[in-house]
Amino acid sequence: MDNNIINTITSSATIKNDRVEYWKNEMNLDDSFKPSNSSIPSNQETSDEKRVFLTGSTGFLGAYLLAHLLKLPNCTIVYCLLRNKKKLGNPVDDILNNLKQHKLYDQLTPNQLLKIEVVAGDLRKPKYGISIFDYADLANDVNLIINSAANINLESNYERMKTINVNGVREMIKLSISVQPPIKMVFISSFSVFNNHVLNQGEEFNEQVQLPLIDNLEKESSGYIQTKIVSEYLLMNASNKFNVPTMIIRSPVLFVNPYTNIGAHDLFQTLFLSSHEIGFYPKLDINVLVSPITWASNNIMNVILNESCWKTSISHLSKSTSIYNINGEIQRFDILFEATLKKQFGCKEMPFIDWCNKVYNSNLQACKRYSRLKSNEFLMLFKIDKGLGVSKNTKSLLQSLGSFGGNYNDLNSCGVNEEMILGSISYNNKKTSSKL
Fold this sequence. Notes:
The protein is α/β, with parallel strands linked by helices and 436 residues long. It contains 17 helices and 13 strands. A seven-stranded parallel beta sheet has the order 3-2-1-4-5-6-11, with helices on both faces. A two-stranded parallel sheet has the order 7-10. Strands 8-13 form a two-stranded parallel ribbon. It starts with a helix and ends with a helix.
């Protein structure tokens, strides 16, 4: 592993040496990472044409990234890694059904949909579990890899989560360096890597300077967050060692599409829906970075596709790694609860533990969804410093691209407003009523 990175992340560590060694080993590039010496020409940088390998296309964010790519005139093919769980039918149907679920399918023409090429494989397996011939063809044909796939189970520990989340990143690196020059890599990380990261008084957040600390990595209770931190350091290490152009994009919490009110029933949305159902909301004095999926996906793609963004926002640890936190300003749960649930529906606040018990004892739909998430411990231990909103550099960049959307009162906002939350509740009520 790169000594500069090791020294930086361990210099102030107060955890036991054996745990430092454990995490260093998790971030290490072993002998299985072998760069190609082949002179076989690939499609790297030969033109403006985009030939993309995308993971996570059946996810919430993945659907929007895929739709954006398919609409690009200069994007000629999108290889979508897909594990065909059913073993029956055409695996592309899973991708198309996901696009339909989020009302993105009808925005695409038949010719655009023909750009989808399914790669039937598995993130957990070496070379994605595909044949060596298919693997070589894939490596020599694509010029951009976007890894948006992730297991987001908030209850699972690191050992269980890493089989997909960390191994998927390892396999992305190996695919990238299997040709020369290496293929550009994009990793979708999360702002949550800064959970419990405290800025010094007067310190200004800059994602190229502040990095997740190994002490926080060890103390972190969420396996999901731990896998994101390890993956980021793996990528910076690979970027340095193999000179791979790399981009790490930290996503905010993704809220519903404000124009359709369709979301992914994730933790943030389910908190509001279940609170509305029982007439009480939890006392949560928590900072959060949350954006509508439309704003987040649009800005993520704007940054990925802007060539100059690969040469700026460079991490001080890795000369070939650009890092962007794509989010707006800090928002607070308690303020959003009061502006929507209390003001519009007369819901009342109650202690978090009492609220959890009330939700768990409810048979209402959103309450049952929240119970399945098993996120109580995660919420109780989640703490984002109020200074960790959008950095000046990234805000200036997004403003220059014309897509920052700083007005919190409209549907193009970088953050979530009352209209979006109320729209989500209304849409959920209509769906629930139609099933009765």
